[in-house]
Amino acid sequence: MNKYFVKFFYCLIISSFIFASCDKDKNGKEDENGNGNQIDADIPVLATTITIGAVEYAVDSTSIEKIDDGIWYMYVQLQNADKPLIMHTVRYATGSTDYTLETWVANDSIRGKETPGAMVNRYEQAGRQVRMAINAGFYGTAVNGTPVSMQKTNGVLSFLPVDNYPMIGFDAQNRPYMDSVKLKSVVRMESNNAEFIITSVNGGRWEDYLVLYNSYMGKYTRTNEWGTEVLLEPVGGAWEELRSHINVRCKVETVVGSGTRPNTLSASMEIPKGKIVLSGNGTANAFLSMLKPDDYVYVTVNYFLKSTPEVTSTTLRNIVNGWNIILNGNEIMPHFNDLDALESANHPRTAAGFTCDKEYVFFTVVEGRNPTPASPTVSAGVSTRELAQVMQYFGATNAINLDGGGSTCMVVDKELKNFVSDGSQRAVADGLAIIKK
Q1: N or C: at which end does the chain have fewer Cβ atoms within 10 angstroms?
Q2: Which residues on adjacent β-strands are paired with residue 187?
Q3: Which domains does the chain have, with CATH numbers?
Q4: Helix runs in 75-210, H state only
Q5: Mean of the per-residue pLDDT values for the chain?
Q6: pTM over 0.85
Q7: What is the C-alpha to C-alpha distance for residues 372 and 363, in angstroms, rounded to an integer?
């Protein structure tokens, strides 16, 4: 718990550096010192050496494959005995408008896990062509896959707790953003304009908290018998289909008061698809107790980026959390002291990044924990600072560290590209995907 508390304040500090200047030009070409990797407007060009740590290594093997217009898959291998590595990257040109970058929620619930391959199959069966998918945000293993921080898919927040780690998100034009966010959400009564701050979305309901629950929570709110819960029906249509969640007029359908139901799962309020539940304890309970059926309220679920508050919930359509920002304006970010052992060790890693002008987005996995009896090749893994150097090599100037280790996974056109250190794909909380429109 202390680790997460300290990490939260680290994220606040890091977020103040998000918009540092970039040393590379918009295509990631080499700077005057010969650093970086030249990225052509169409065909990627991979450098013959890469700097990992303080050492420059020869690149022994590369492969570049065009997946579709604007999408390239790149494979790089180092066979040096001191640092053998296998790296996979998909570069997407945001100007290619035939695709959408989407966040997937495992089994459409924050309380579940699913392998990236299973997510691909599920979307393919729904008639959508998936060109690439990777594992994404960190999640809690003790609570069946609940994300540790922000998660949003196709305009609907599936999870937003009180304390948030950095995130990477994409707007409707697939342009990327990377920062920490601040929640600015409220419910207002139509009758008297009384307001109460919404504390979180699908998070835990503690004393004085007012939590908004939607269908991504599952069938029930999973709260105890204390506190008041209010079922709301949005007037403008299903909650999941609304393009904006600012000042959404909602009709009160049901109000269940504090202490009036047994402390069982099925006795907590059901969350029908398309509707939302407001649940509050303490002072929030007193506020919700003033409501009755057929009343109307206005619900706003909004947030903004801490470094650029003009970027809000209406801008960002898909979001996943990351553990830490590793590359900011082409500057490699330091390890946080209390987490240095985790960040400095060699592990399989997953990252997402982009160029300063947002023209290119990169999805990268680095193999690690090889060899094992199942691994065909050797890859040592990298630290998070080395992962930042890998992202620079491929052309990114900004990057975030996503969930790694046994979760690290990349699927391109339904083919698993990397060796997964568990021996098989691990079920995870969410994914990032490039999908043909």
Answers
A1: N
A2: 196, 299
A3: 2-154+318-436 (no CATH), 185-301 (2.60.120)
A4: 116-125
A5: 88
A6: yes
A7: 25
